[in-house]
Write a structure and sequence with these properties.
Strand order of the largest sheet: 4-8-9-3-10-11
Number of strands: 15
Mean pLDDT: 86
Number of helices: 23
Structural class: alpha/beta
Radius of gyration: 32 Å
Helix content: 40-55%
Length: about 525
């Protein structure tokens, strides 16, 4: 089926030749997805058949396709069942069709004794329901729909079903009333659905009416992914005055990670990928307050951040948005840092996220906010950290040496060798070529120089030590109980946007070589 999409802001309108039988309309909240869908639905006229579990279970619209079919079915009847919503109307329609089929069968049997009882919509529904919920059965008793579980003889009404079960009934029954070869629109198909049955349900539904095209409107990536080869339309923005949209037809998801796909769909601003879990990590709490012009998305590991930033920017011609990443410096050397920055992955001038909390201006801002002498606090913290670094100097030098050796071996071992002898010779020569002891002694000399010069900034750049904050006593010096309270104080100041907030934000941005708020 060929489907014309609504006009874009530039006046053009895309056309989809939908051979896959499904289209997924997806986008951020407020991007205009619902209006986009309503426009499509209106343009398709009688071919359109719209379903929404939220409206079907809890709404009372008298203008839905199911309500119109219900009114038509009972237009000539003296008795018309009470139906508060579309799921009640569907139960009534199923019962109406069941009775009509039975009457037709009895009349046909009188003329043709060998006539077979036809398979009804209720039969199809009962079979599909059993496939989804093997322990459950659909019963009809005295004109009412009842349900039972397993061998339990007790039956119960549809009111006792969970919202997910009622939504499944609504969709399974609803699609059977769509026009032949029609277009079934489904709003928020993931609503009320547990992930464990969502894919199975929609596979069943699409199989029931394979003659129809399905258009799903959602913001749920898991559902979009479950629809396989469906065409995905990303609605980005809506101009209500001109009734026009900004939208794109996404390239196939194959080769795109879920993180990239979701970032493209949900972003209304440039994207900033960061490390951490998105809930508990310092990164997720700090960076959205510092980089306010960006949609900040946590991905977990540094490798995911690097790959996501690369993939997102490879697609820049499609989505027209910028993307950056942030990874901890850890023990990367200047060449590694330069390479990452060239790929739009920002690397701070400190070893890790905890060290950002120990920047001079951050410490001074917290001390001042807490009514302490910022000069005294910072000098004490500085002395404590440099003393701590002096104590850990050889261990830190060894960790940096190990990192450098590992990276060098990874680069050099990738060479091509014609036979095993050449590979063995190459590996044997690497130890002498890399010279681990020479590297180690070089790091020791460099680190001793930082201590001798009281070079606090350089110490923060190379010192990976999770106990730095508690070891420095910075929290107590600022009148706070522990590390967690100190970090919460930094975040609280930033979130307030007042007092020392600009000082902290500027210090963090300078740590990335950024002078102004925007990149």
């Amino acid at each position: 089926m060929t489907i014309s999409l609504p006009p874009r802001k530039n006046g053009e309108a895309a056309v989809i030749d939908d051979n896959g039988g499904r289209i997924i309309i997806i986008g951020a909240n407020g991007a205009g997805k619902s209006r986009f869908t309503a426009y499509l639905c209106s343009a398709l006229g009688d071919k359109a058949f719209r379903l929404s579990a939220l409206q079907g279970l809890y709404g009372s619209s008298s203008d839905s396709p199911i309500a119109r079919l219900f009114d038509e079915a009972y237009s000539m009847n003296v008795f018309k069942p009470q139906a508060a919503n579309d799921i009640d109307r569907l139960f009534a329609l199923l019962m109406h069709d069941e009775m009509a089929n039975l009457i037709h069968y009895k009349m046909e049997k009188a003329d043709k004794p060998g006539a077979q009882l036809p398979r009804t919509k209720l039969d199809v529904l009962a079979q599909a329901w059993k496939g989804l919920f093997p322990e459950s059965n659909i019963l009809v008793e005295s004109g009412k729909f009842l349900f039972s579980r397993g061998e339990d003889s007790r039956s119960y009404s549809a009111l006792k079903l969970s919202d997910g079960e009622r939504a499944a009934i609504y969709y399974l029954a609803g699609v059977m009333y769509a026009p032949k070869g029609g277009v079934i629109f489904v709003d928020s198909p993931e609503m009320f659905m547990h992930p464990s049955i969502m894919q199975a349900l929609w596979n069943q539904i699409e199989a029931l009416r394979s003659d129809c095209t399905y258009i799903y409107t959602t913001h749920d990536l898991e559902f979009a992914s479950s629809r396989g080869d469906g065409t995905v339309v990303w609605v980005r923005d809506y101009d209500a005055a001109d009734v026009r949209w900004e939208y794109d037809i996404l390239p196939p998801q194959q080769g795109m990670s879920d993180e990239i796909y979701m970032a493209i769909i949900g972003a209304r601003k440039p994207v900033l990928f960061i490390e951490g879990d998105g809930v508990h990590s310092i990164d997720a709490k700090l960076y959205p307050l510092v980089f306010k012009d960006y949609t900040v998305k946590s991905l977990g590991s540094c490798n995911k951040v690097i790959e996501a930033t690369r993939s997102f920017n490879d697609l820049s011609a499609f989505h027209h948005m910028d993307s950056f990443g942030i990874v901890d410096r850890d023990r990367r050397d200047a060449h590694e840092v330069e390479y990452l920055r060239g790929k739009k992955v920002m690397v701070p001038e400190v070893a890790e996220i905890e060290n950002i909390m120990m920047l001079e201006d951050v410490i001074r801002a917290v001390a001042k906010t807490r009514g302490k002498d910022e000069n005294r606090v910072f000098e004490k913290v500085k002395r404590a950290i440099i003393a701590q670094f002096r104590h850990d100097l050889r261990q830190q030098a060894l960790l940096h040496t190990r990192h450098r050796v590992k990276r060098t071996v990874e680069y050099r071992i990738d060479g091509r060798f014609n036979n095993i002898n050449m590979l063995e010779q190459h590996i044997e020569s690497l130890a002498a070529e890399i010279n681990p002891r020479g590297l180690y002694e070089g790091f020791c000399r460099e680190f001793r120089r930082y201590v001798e010069l009281d070079d606090y900034a350089s110490v923060l750049r190379v010192y990976n030590q999770k106990s730095m904050i508690p070891g420095s006593n910075v929290a107590a010096l600022c009148g706070l109980r522990n590390k967690d309270e100190y970090i919460k104080c930094v975040i609280s100041i930033l979130r307030s946007g007042k007092g020392e907030a600009d000082r902290i934000a500027s210090a963090v941005r300078r740590c990335f070589g950024i002078k102004s708020e925007k990149k």
